[in-house]
Amino acid sequence: MPGTVLLLAASPMGKGCLVDAASVLPVLAAVPPSVLAGADTANVVELADPLEPQAVLTRLRAAAAAPGPLTVYVAGQLQLDRRQRLPHLALARTTPSTVRYTALPWHWFREELRLRPAGATTVLLDLHADAETWEWLRGNVLDCGPAVTVYGRVAPPAGRGRRTVAAPSYMKAVATILRSGGRPGLDRLHQMATARIAGEGETGDLVIPARAGQATPTPPSHPAAPPLPTQPFPVRSVPVQSVPVRSVPVQPFSAQSVPVRSVTTPSPLTPSPPVTSRPVPAPAVSGGARALEQGGAPGGDPHADISAAVRSGRHADADALAARWEQAAVVAQGAGSEEALHWAEVRADLAMFAGDAAGSCRIWMAVAAARLDAGQPVDAPAVEAAVDRAHHQWGRIGSAASARELGPALARLRGRVPGRHEGALDHVQEQLRQLQTQG
Asked: What is the pTM of this model?
């Protein structure tokens, strides 16, 4: 099965640039695609100094939807937005005051890659951090998702008074090693690359040899490297299947306006294969809730059973099984627990796979409301993502009556959670007015 490779190199223009990220692309491009992917054949997508985060999101989403192994090479610089203090990959137009609107939120990587089968995705990073982001990294995980294997380094900010633009030397070392013939295992490749740049005098890097689900650094030869916490969450995966999208009576909120996942469009690269899922730890449940598990999750891996049901077209069975696990989590941990919300999100995705945009919209709105009721802020990434996805699904409802029914609730929710993009609430209200004229 062919692999997919995404080469992403991005850094700001002007004096805010810390690294000449795009300089690594010619070196990577000289490596055969099959070697970049670790597969017999591969499709390669290259993004050099992109301007818009939505353009990067579109490419990332397409790569994540492709079957087979996915390898993402990212070179660039990290910056925090001033409002939420969350890391972003700076793009060509990014400035310190516009990070929130012109850079790629790092958690989009996790959101787009979370539906991929465990063990099928590798990310190699060569990032440079400014002072604020470097301090943030001392106590936070740069997370690409629990099912993604990550290797790389984050370089510290340059010393005071130094304005030289750095080179993505770790990624260049990786490319040079791959060009020399053969493809060592990822552990060995990472060790060779870090040893090479250490030998060239680069010190103080945060070294990331992270296995899937964790971000545990190998003690580097650089004593200044801060600790990287271990990712505590269990691996979770949900089934992915392409389904037709029904006609839309209202203009959908543009993908250029809302950062939402889209797994309803088959990859243009190759046909979709059956979805696989690695067994994951069962949710913690009480004795009574465990009886539900025994009635609907043989083998202890509900995600695999749900995936099988979706592949065979048994969407109702898949939803029923996810609903049993959701109820078990509610009984054991409460309706606002992350475990219960995880299963609600699975059910929202299942409704989307089944072509039930209205049902998916309802569930995503319920998830957003539950997170808000649990005290999560209106600009929390998980809250914004739930509302964005509800909005996106609302735009795909095939029944004007159903769209009119759900529109007011979505407008109220949008009033509380406007999201990152201007005009979201105005879009809902305008589409509602158009729906009212349809009778």
From this structure: 0.55
